[in-house]
Write a structure and sequence with these properties.
The chain is an alpha+beta fold and about 210 residues long. It is about 20% helix and about 35% strand. Strand 3 and strand 4 form a beta hairpin. The protein binds 2-oxoglutaric acid (AKG). The site of 2-oxoglutaric acid (AKG) has 9 residues, from strand 6, strand 12 and strand 13.
Length: about 210
């Protein structure tokens, strides 16, 4: 996967980054064709079974709070060849070593599937998400103002775009995707947080299971 390195077209608030056309239509088609062979399974949290289906790769166990059922339903697998060129592209874009993106999650949202308000598991640091096939809205709200509707920041995720959650938007904000209007896939790559970062930050996890 060759290609130019991108500058974000807009620096959004709170260190949120959004980049349209991060991958080409041909690259998207090749990834989607590869998804047909992936062992998707519904995401789990304790006994709760979400509507979205996921496949998990690399390091970064589920936090213990997710329960053993989550690990059994969605075991982590070695990184597949399919994702390697994209991981390389993401690493070059962010100026982070490729090997530091130790975790990847492929998620399928059938039309009408949401993901509820949550933050990423505390052992992850930088999160880069790539959208495929369908568009979605992604909403962010600060922990300090969860009840303040006016505090919500919203972006439209176009197919083939990429976003980055790091620093403030990753640690001090939660995110959510309301029910999708069409079939959408995402690939999220994650780096690990070091011990110091984890300890110094809140570890709130998921606050809603309505997904
Ligand atoms: O599908 C996406 O882009 C968001 C996924 C997400 O919020 C997550 O994996 O925590």
């Amino acid at each position: 996967m060759q290609g130019a390195l991108f500058e974000p077209i807009a620096q959004l608030p709170h260190r949120l980054v959004y980049q349209p056309d991060f991958i080409s239509a041909a690259e998207e088609a090749a990834l989607l064709a590869g998804f047909a062979d992936l062992p998707f399974n519904q995401a789990r949290f304790q006994q709760y079974i979400a509507r979205r289906r996921v496949v998990r790769y690399g390091e970064g166990d589920y936090p213990a709070s997710y329960g053993q059922a989550a690990e059994i339903a969605n075991p982590s697998r070695p990184f597949p060849e399919l994702l390697m060129p994209l991981r390389r592209r993401v690493a070059a874009w962010r100026g982070i070593a490729e090997a530091d993106f130790v975790h990847a999650l492929v998620t399928e949202y059938q039309s009408g599937t949401p993901i509820g308000w949550h933050s990423d598991a505390p052992h992850f640091k930088v999160v880069v998400g790539i959208s495929l096939k369908g568009a979605a809205r992604m909403r962010f709200r600060p922990y300090s103002a969860q009840k303040l509707a006016g505090a919500i920041v919203e972006i439209e995720l176009a197919p083939r775009s990429a976003y980055v959650m790091q620093d403030e938007i990753r640690w001090d904000w939660q995110h959510q995707i309301p029910p999708t209007r069409e079939l959408r896939y995402s690939i999220t790559f994650r780096t690990l947080a070091d011990e110091g970062t984890r300890r110094g930050r809140r570890t709130p996890g998921r606050t809603s299971q309505r997904d």
